Amino acid sequence: MYSKELSDLSYSVLDLATVVAGQTIQGTYHNSLEIAQQAEKSGYTRYWFAEHHNMANVASSATAVLIGYVAGGTKTIRVGSGGIMLPNHAPLIIAEQFGTLASLYPNRIDLGLGRAPGTDQVTAMAIRGENFHASHYFPEDVQSLQNFFSADNYDAKVRAIPGEGIDIPIWILGSSTDSARLAAAKGLPYAFASHFAPTYFLEAIELYRRNFKPSEHLKEPYVMACVNVVMADTDEEAEYLSTSVKQLFMGIVTGKRKPLQPPVHDMRTVWNDIEKEAVMQMLAYSFIGGPEKIKRDMQAFIDKTGINEVMATSHIYDHKARLKSYQLLAEALK
């Protein structure tokens, strides 16, 4: 058990630029900016986008572009990637992109890095081509990226301009224990994708803390957990709204992805028992309810895990209800 209060917890937003049924991509981006602006006023620490490809319900494929859009429409909140799937890109290109962002928006840009493709294998092949197995070089690519950001790289034959000499916080993202080991060895902050891959969460963060080596970037382990949050005035309303995210995850389980669907009053009309079990297993770290329930559940979560920061992702069909959910969460955690 850890002794932390809710008020000790930093809180942030993960946005996949989720495409809602009946809505345009342009509208999706406008909604993201509005959520980020509200989050800034509500005391959220950071606003991250995740790189995904070839998904009908996710519009954050050009992650760096969206980061610039939201950073340009806000003033103080940190904006970044959760994450950039580094094996999809040459480290030099990412150094230049994020060097550009950090030059435009100083001390506000985060670079979270993942090793997964962020898509299916066929699309990964289309992205990576001959570099299809690039994930095996993830530790080397992270080091290469750090080298490009280093001021000591000024006399190298290949330099990142902009990027060189700019202090951009690098995070290692993970959904298994492999990335935990890398984050620990490099002394970098660690963010876990417990919002869809809960299985190894507790094991991974324990391994990270146990093996952490202090670095110039970080003196003590820092753990951020991404979780699903659906809040409303009452538990009953939140449960109703949460049927949209349950349908979204059912699309992952069945391979039949589609834009975020409206909530339904009875999920039994949508899924069978096997699909329900698979979805609920993926949604193990989800916080659904009214303010009092969320306070109790979130306190129990940090008592068990000792996390430093929680990152909420909220797949809610109605935009105003989604805004309200994030506002209620901020009020619950203050």
Could you characterize what this model shows?
This protein has 334 residues and is an alpha/beta fold. The protein has a single domain (6-333), classed as TIM Barrel (Alpha-Beta Barrel), CATH 3.20.20.30. 42% of the residues lie in helices and 15% in strands. It is built from twelve helices and nine strands. The protein has helices at 25-41, 63-72, 91-104, 121-128, 138-149, 177-186, 201-211, 235-241, 243-254, 273-282, 291-305, 319-333, and strands spanning 10-15, 46-49, 78-85, 109-114, 170-174, 190-192, 223-231, 286-289, 309-313. The protein has an eight-stranded parallel β-barrel with strand order 1-2-3-4-5-6-7-9, surrounded by eight helices. α1 links the parallel β1 (10-15) and β2 (46-49). α11 crosses α12. The model has no long low-confidence stretch (mean pLDDT 92). To bacterial alkanal monooxygenase alpha and beta chains. Residues 21-307 form the Luciferase-like domain.
Keywords:
12 helices; eight-stranded parallel β-barrel; alpha/beta; CmoO-like; TIM Barrel; Bact_Lucif_Oxidored; single chain; Luciferase-like monooxygenase; 334 residues; 9 strands
Write the layout of secondary structure elements.
Elements: E1 10-15, H1 25-41, E2 46-49, H2 63-72, E3 78-85, H3 91-104, E4 109-114, H4 121-128, H5 138-149, E5 170-174, H6 177-186, E6 190-192, H7 201-211, E7 223-231, H8 235-241, H9 243-254, H10 273-282, E8 286-289, H11 291-305, E9 309-313, H12 319-333
Parallel strand pairs: 1-2, 1-9, 2-3, 3-4, 4-5, 5-6, 6-7, 7-8, 7-9
Structural class per helix/strand content? alpha/beta
Query: What is the fourth-level CATH superfamily?
Result: Luciferase-like domain
Q: What is the CATH architecture descriptor?
A: Alpha-Beta Barrel
Kindly, what is the distance between the CA atoms of the first and last residues, rounded to a whole number of angstroms? 21 Å
Give the overall silhouette: globular
Average predicted local confidence, pLDDT: 92
**Spatial ordering of strands, largest sheet:** 1-2-3-4-5-6-7-9
Count of discrete structural domains: 1
